[in-house]
Amino acid sequence: MIKVKGFKFSGISIGLKKSGKKDLGLIFSEKPCKAHAVFTKNKVLAAPIIVGKKIIKKNNIHSIIVNSGSANACTGKEGILATNKVLKELSLNTNMDAYNFFPSSTGMIGQQLDYQLINKNIPKLIKRLKGTSIKDFANAITTTDRFTKVSHKKLRIGRNNYNFLAVAKGAGMIHPNMATMLCFFLTDLDFEIKLFRKIINNATDMSFNSISVDGDMSTNDTVIGLSNGTGGDEIITNKSKTLSTISNTINGMFLDLASLIVKDAEGGTKFCKINVHGAKSKKSAKLVARKISNSLLFKTALFGSDPNWGRIIAAIGSSDVAYINQNKIDISIGGHLLVKGGLEYSKSKIADKLMKKKEVEININLNSGKHSSYMLTNDIGINYVKFNSYYTT
Fold it and tell me: Which of 70, 205, 236, 306 has the greatest number of C-beta atoms within 10 Å?
């Protein structure tokens, strides 16, 4: 049974989704949390992010409320008012301050949030809070997801076992620098706040900022971490002996969830990891990996199981990396070398077989430096086009 000390969860259906599925979730901590959030880089921001950016600065968050079925994005002053109305209602029902609650929304852009419907159901949402209701919360935040995304780990530190929980959602409109995805990370371990921010930032960069489903950046994505310290007396600092183990655990959890988002890609049939080696910097390696992961020609070749390396090398050359030398580029599918020094190295049925797998790994060596990076992506095929062509109808 998954539990995180001091945290309770709930998830209910109130009618925001036409399907009648759960669409309102709440995370509640018995103590104020140290908090840090990473937001979308999209310049068009949803109302909950505009409000949430102010709340996170107060660093006195107890709770997170999330609705699905409406992104509350591009809703103007009415959308901001709606978000604040929900937070006010929460405060009235808990005798807490509105800034103790952090808002998130996901769903259709442009629709006004029915805050009156939400507020009517807040007493029920609070009443349903339980330490074991993580599944209900995870279901309440989904939109086009085919499955929920939850990761839980335990670590023995000193005399106590501490819990780490991450719950995410996302399947489409996924692009580097975050996407239409949400991730809520909770722990009952205490952290020095500057270190906690650094850990969340690093884990996000290695995971949710390293995936691309369709190259479209959303207005709502948020990764937020909460640490309530109720699990024991340990406070993690830069000098803690267990820091490396803790960081690796959180990095692994975030990467697992990011991988699940790509595997749940709308209409997707393939999961692909693109590794770029031999770059002059990690930044330029990432730029090359991103360029390939967002190439529709590559992604459709992936759908058709076509080992068309010409599309890969063309994407490499069109990236904003000035030092690329086509005569140094090596390309492999898995461990099978296709291109050596920019020229075709081999033709074989091995490449065809490797491309037919559900999970494909592309390895690129620029042979120009010592840095590496990667991206996780998927194919684009018929079902993606069908699904997104009538999304609002």
Answer: 70
